[in-house]
Amino acid sequence: MKKSISLVATGMIALSVLAGCGSKDEASSSSNGKVKIEFFQYKSEAKGTFDELINKFEKENPTIDVVQSQPPDAITVLKTRVAKRDLPDVIGMGGDVSYAEISKAGAFKDVSKDSALNDVQPAYVGMLKDISKQEKVYGIPYAANADAVIYNKTIFKDLGIEVPTTWDEFIAAAEKVKAAGKIPFYFTFKDAWTALPAYNVLAANTQGEDFFKDLDKGKTTFAEGHKEATEKLLTLLKYGHKDQLGKAYNDGNVAFAKGESAMYLQGIWAIPEIKKANPNIDLGVFPYPINDSKVVSGVDLLLAQSATSKHPKEAKKFIDFLLSDENMKTYLTEQNAFAAKRGVVQEAPELEGLKASFDKGNVVDFPDHYVPTAVALDKQLQVLTQKKNVGEYLKTLDSEWEKVADRK
């Protein structure tokens, strides 16, 4: 969305990028005479996968060295580097507000006419356009994640619970688990962001298709559009465990792996971590059964090329390598993600419950992708889980939004 605070930052970045267009790239070549390019990506859990793919690429392209950078708080580091005119050659990041800001700054190469986009699911290309409010595209959508209800199949079978298809059935399932003396949902609000997966789905399926467009125009408010989602989230909290604010993401992964809850309201990215804790767990996923049950799935990883790379041919060659079906399948398998590319299928059996939604294109973007960092949606949700005051939460969101809205 177009925000005044973002525009200030974006303007500063843009000036820095333009000023550095002729700057020297000190890391552009190796001492062995090979061309060196930097691949900067933000997913710490994918570092090993990309190391594997980079090794394969370098064997096929012996004159190119690829250096992977994956620092803590990567997006903040990336923005700082953009401002300092120190742009990596290839960037892997999410299709969110940060992408919008950096792309508007002119840091990324325009790929609107790149033939690779022809193979991408149109919904994901559309998401990048919507999030940046630009018709041009500055990154190739690579992988998509999804929020889902992760459930323990053994517990469901033992209690005679069928996968719910309506909200009432969902709550009835939670009631049945609770009556059996077990925990229906495991929550980990010590890490504020872990409230986002459930909230994203609830909001995306109740706020209306044009919510953020109308919000940006001053035609609606969070108090109007997110009231139902907020109330439903608090309903789910009633079926959680004690000390929800005392448990972190890693705690939740291990607890669910050990069978401490029947369901876990997380993204599918949690599944590899769960299986590390218990390789033998029999788990599955299903869409949140609310309204038409659209699966929240956004561009979890896109590949962008620096507009000022000293080695654009080599950078493009690496991107094309990653986009091949074979190499994309390696990423999907190891990272438990869905392909943004048409025709590349995620074959993990535990994700079977989401495949129909992806096949039908019954997906919608993550609402938090449209909320500026300054609004601190995750922190507001953390407070909500503690105070459970719907009115106060929604009023705070509207107040914070007004501080950053730009309706000129």
In short:
The chain is of the alpha/beta class. 45% of the residues lie in helices and 13% in strands.
What do you see in this structure?
This protein has helices at residues 4-19, 47-60, 74-83, 97-104, 122-132, 153-159, 167-179, 196-204, 211-216, 222-225, 227-237, 249-257, 271-277, 312-323, 325-335, 352-360, 377-387, 390-404, and strands spanning 35-41, 64-69, 90-93, 140-144, 147-152, 183-185, 261-267, 283-286, 295-296, 299-305, 338-339, 363-364. With 408 residues, the chain is an alpha/beta fold. A 6-stranded mixed β-sheet has the order 2-1-3-10-4-11, with helices on both faces. Strands 6-7-5-8 form a 4-stranded mixed β-sheet. A two-stranded parallel ribbon has the order 9-12. Strand 1 (35-41), helix 2 and strand 2 form a beta-alpha-beta unit. The longest helix has 16 residues, at 4-19. The chain is globular and about 70 Å long. The relative contact order is 0.18. Mean pLDDT is 90; it is low at 1-27.
- Give the N-terminus to C-terminus distance in angstroms: 13 Å
The helix fraction, in percent, is 40-55%
Low-confidence stretches: 1-27
- Tell me, briefly, the overall form: globular
Give the helix tally: 18
Summed over residues and divided by their number, the pLDDT gives a mean of 90
Order of helices and strands: HEHEHEHHEEHHEHHHHHEHEEEHHEHEHH
- Biggest sheet, spatial arrangement of strands: 2-1-3-10-4-11
Tell me the major beta sheet.
Answer: 6 strands, mixed
